UniProtKB/TrEMBL annotation:
Superkingdom of this protein's organism: Archaea
GO annotation, biological process: lipid biosynthetic process
Record carries keyword GTP-binding: no
UniProt-recorded name of the protein: Alkyldihydroxyacetonephosphate synthase
One MF annotation (Gene Ontology) recorded for this entry: FAD binding
Alphabetized InterPro entries for the sequence: Alkyl-DHAP_Synthase (IPR025650), FAD-bd_oxidored_4_C (IPR004113), FAD-bd_PCMH (IPR016166), FAD-bd_PCMH-like_sf (IPR036318), FAD-bd_PCMH_sub2 (IPR016169), FAD-linked_Oxase-like_C (IPR016164), Oxid_FAD_bind_N (IPR006094), Vanillyl_alc_oxidase_C-sub2 (IPR016171)
Amino acid sequence: MKYDHKLSSKVLAHLSQVVGDRLSTKKVDLLTYSRDYWPITLHWMLKGKLPALPDAVVWPENKEEVEEIVKIAHETSIPIYAYGGGSGVLGGTIPEKGGIIVDLKRMRSIKLHEEDLLVEVEAGTNGYYLEKYLNKKGYTLGHFPQSLYPSTVGGWIATKATGQFSTKYGGIEDMVLGLDVVLPWGESIELKPHPRSATGPDLKGIFIGSEGTLGIVTKAWLKIWPYPEKRVNLSFASENLNDALDSVRRILRRGAKPAVVRIYDTIETKRHFYNFEKAYGKVATVMILEGDTRTVEAEEKIVGEEFKGTPIGEGPVDHWLKTRFNVKEASEFAPLGVVFDTIEVSINWSKATQLYNEVSKAMRSVKGTLFASAHASHFYPQGVCFYFTFAGVPKGDPTEYYNKVWDATMRATLNVGGAISHHHGIGRQRREWLQEELGNAFEVLRRIKDALDEKRIMNPGNMGV
Ligand SMILES: Cc1cc2nc3c(=O)[nH]c(=O)nc-3n(C[C@H](O)[C@H](O)[C@H](O)COP(=O)(O)OP(=O)(O)OC[C@H]3O[C@@H](n4cnc5c(N)ncnc54)[C@H](O)[C@@H]3O)c2cc1C
């Protein structure tokens, strides 16, 4: 393949003044950064089609370098894409308009503030590395996305991620207390980590979930917790999904906060827990309670009083703990011609079962679908996140089939009144539906984009803004 980058020698010289040899226009690097984990792009690549190519990749080592890179991009109107671990699943880092990829992984310093229960961490820090660092010091962040190993702090903040233990610890938005952000013209701001402040609207909220379209996050102050003193692993088999969902709803109403709750529909129960006879034909729930011993004991009592289902021991939890960071499923299916993806949405309790039924039906209605299933993985006193999985072997174009399933799912979710994303974000795959979900509030987002990034250099096209 022939490829010539489009950056002038003047721009390249200017960039290398900032980052030295941490700049590349080599084909191998441009190819590496041409996609993220968006599953359909693997099908494209197997057919020799690239999603897009950047013109250069840079690896800054500090905030000042990021500022200078962004200033160069701003002066020359060259698109710029913040890149963390590249584990996003919706095409968020795809350089669709060419330009410069800014990979932040060399920015990974960590500073612990024990008395304030805070960690000050640079945006490129790897998730697993951060958690291990905290564990050694006697703390946890409580943030465990399945992609803990391949993702970064900046990526979590930019996509508004949640982890598997979110029912107790919350999503990343509940953990971020302070932020450093480089704005689209190269100036940086520091939003300080006060425990709370009434100093106007919360400006952090503009950047959390902005997916690289409004600025580059270079540092965050995150809340941490003492490493849990006690952990209790529980699992149940319920007669149906409703019983399990209703149990968790009532547990949360009473103020108990299990760290992990995962309710698998009958299809996923069969898929994941085939070794556990008591779960056959049932709906399996795995649950982990953790924290201060007394609190956990009280929570265990509440769970015992409320759960409609038969306790089936620690086995299913152990099994889940062993397999929970497996991230290779999607890439194994593509070479076999199977189109596979997961779609997470959220809904209030009053419409939870309706959403599960409607979305499952919508996915199955698309010709070529082999199976559609779900588990509920993040819970709130007000509602729940369903994580749907589908796989299909379409007769024709895989992308056409893929888009049909996505369309059916988004439409069903909007019809029932759910949120079209719970934690993966919008990226390039979901952008056409964001406007519909937000209604005229989308205009607010667009105007913020206009005001902050008038030259539209920050990840242009992402999120549809
Ligand atoms: C198998 C698998 C499992 C997953 N499980 C989960 C899960 O449990 N929970 C969950 O929430 N997500 C999950 N994800 C999705 C993904 O890992 C998250 O979205 C993660 O937060 C992305 O982080 P990253 O560092 O890889 O970001 P990237 O993929 O590198 O970037 C994602 C987006 O953020 C922007 N961005 C990255 N860094 C910055 C920065 N410093 N400043 C501004 N913008 C930035 C990019 O431009 C892009 O738009 C999973 C993905 C896979 C492949």
